[in-house]
Amino acid sequence: MKKTFLASAMSAMLIAMSGVAQAAIVSVTYSGKVTSGVDTTGVFGAPGVNLAGLPFTVKYVFDTARGAVTMGPPQFSAIGGAAAGTASPSIATLVVINGRALLYTGNQFGEILGYNDGQLSQQAHESDMTLNAGGRTYNINLNESITDFGVALPATITGPLNYTVGTNDTKTGELNLIITNTSTGESIGSADVFLDAASLQIKTLLGATSVSSALQPSPALSHITRLGLVR
């Protein structure tokens, strides 16, 4: 029994240690279906469109050297943004639903996190933006996470990782978009969309060309809303 415990502990430590890596530019992609959500902003369709049941793809690009950086184990993360008084690790985020895309910078807050303590493992990502432009104020909060009550998820934040969400995993995902009149504070539109992820992919991007390609929306998309300076 004792030998089995020691072997299990060593295996868990090796899995957790797999997250050790130098700072990198990283692409994180979630895919799945929208659980529920109505968009009155016009970003993902005609104002009032019901997005429930539609497929979605979210692609984040992070710089793991920005913000408060933790290189565990058991936790590997980069967390920060204007809300925390630091640079945000979220360079840009692309959300595709209903053949339409939202592309924005996560200047307000960004998080990329991998955790594995030998009993619980998790991947979590967030990209938030606040932007005043054209008399409008845009507030975006997007967060997604997958938790496995075991060691299935490595603690890596640089990849490579290709993960299919299991039936026993706990997952969360929500996109909240609010647009108001900057002068009056009056609501122009909003979207509160719940996301049910089926897969997660993480990989390190090499060079500026790779980063640009990762953020390039498909030409098949009918509309792209761009907010902020996206490199």
Distance between the termini: 54 Å
- Please trace the helix and strand order, writing H or E for each element: HEEEEEEEEEEEEEHE
Radius of gyration: 18 Å
Count of individual domains: 1
Look at the helices and sheets and give the structural class.
mainly beta
**Overall geometric form:** globular
Mean pLDDT: 88
Number of strands: 14
Main sheet overview: 14 strands, mixed
- Percent range of helical residues: 10-25%
Spans of at least 5 consecutive residues with low confidence: 1-21
How many distinct helices? 2
Estimated share of beta-strand residues: over 45%
Description of the molecule:
- The protein has one domain.
- The chain is mostly beta strands and 231 residues long.
- The longest helix has 16 residues, at 2-17.
- Helix content is 10%, strand content 53%.
- A hairpin with a 2-residue loop joins strand 6 and strand 7 (100-104).
Features:
single chain, 231 residues, mainly beta, 14-stranded mixed β-sheet, 14 strands, 10% helix, globular
Concise structural overview:
With 231 residues, this protein is mainly β. The chain has 2 helices and 14 strands, in the order H-E-E-E-E-E-E-E-E-E-E-E-E-E-H-E. It has helices spanning 2-17, 207-214; strands spanning 25-39, 49-50, 55-63, 68-71, 75-80, 90-97, 100-104, 109-116, 121-133, 136-148, 161-164, 170-181, 187-205, 223-227.
Topology, pairings included?
Blueprint: H1 2-17, E1 25-39, E2 49-50, E3 55-63, E4 68-71, E5 75-80, E6 90-97, E7 100-104, E8 109-116, E9 121-133, E10 136-148, E11 161-164, E12 170-181, E13 187-205, H2 207-214, E14 223-227
Parallel strand pairs: 7-14
Antiparallel strand pairs: 1-2, 1-3, 1-13, 3-6, 4-5, 5-8, 6-7, 8-9, 9-10, 10-12, 11-13, 12-13
